[in-house]
């Protein structure tokens, strides 16, 4: 029984829009796996899209030197997918679209 995908892959690209402002795009793929011990319930693969925007605020004003702002969006398309099942019955769904922001 495989409870984790045999294949996983991720790809991230980062692009500097202007000095101090970066945009990123990511793809995360999780291969198919099984949902029961007999390997009769196959859970399909899925690919998720991720986006990010990061700003070094010190590039825009000296008073903000050392301050960085970030916003990330995971599962941009709000893909509904199953992450795992126990005994072919109790299945857990992956996280939907999530937006996080940070200031450090």
Describe the sheet with the most strands: 5 strands, antiparallel
Q: What is the CA–CA distance across the termini?
A: 43 Å
- With strands numbered from the N-terminus, the spatial order across the biggest sheet is 1-2-5-6-9
Shape: elongated
Query: Helical region count?
Result: 0
| Helix content class | under 10%
Name the helix and strand elements from N-terminus to C-terminus, one letter apiece: EEEEEEEEE
> Roughly what fraction of the amino acids lie in strands?
over 45%
User: What does the oligomeric state look like here?
Assistant: single chain
Structural class: mainly beta
Number of strands: 9
User: If you compute it from the alpha carbons, what radius of gyration comes out, rounded to the nearest whole angstrom?
Assistant: 19 Å
Please mark out the parts with pLDDT under 50 across 5 or more consecutive residues, or reply none. none
Mean pLDDT: 92
Task: List descriptors.
104 residues; 0% helix; five-stranded antiparallel β-sheet; two-stranded antiparallel ribbon
Question: Any overview of this molecule?
Answer:
With 104 residues, this protein is mainly beta. It is 0% helix and 56% strand. The chain contains no helices and 9 strands. The strands form 3 sheets. Strands 1-2-5-6-9 form a 5-stranded antiparallel beta sheet, with no helix packed on it. Strands 3-4 form a two-stranded antiparallel ribbon. Strands 7-8 form a two-stranded antiparallel ribbon. Strand 1 and strand 2 form a beta hairpin. The protein is elongated, with a radius of gyration of 19 Å. The mean pLDDT is 92.
């Amino acid at each position: 029984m495989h409870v984790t995908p045999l294949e996983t892959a991720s790809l991230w690209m980062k692009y500097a829009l202007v000095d101090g402002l970066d945009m990123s795009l990511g793809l995360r793929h999780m291969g198919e796996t099984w949902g029961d011990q007999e390997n009769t319930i196959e859970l399909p693969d899925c690919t998720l899209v991720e986006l990010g925007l990061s700003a070094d605020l010190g590039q825009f004003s000296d008073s903000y030197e050392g301050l960085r702002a970030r916003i990330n969006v995971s599962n941009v398309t709000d893909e509904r997918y199953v992450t795992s099942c126990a005994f072919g019955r109790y299945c857990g769904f992956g996280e939907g679209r999530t937006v996080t922001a940070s200031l450090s």
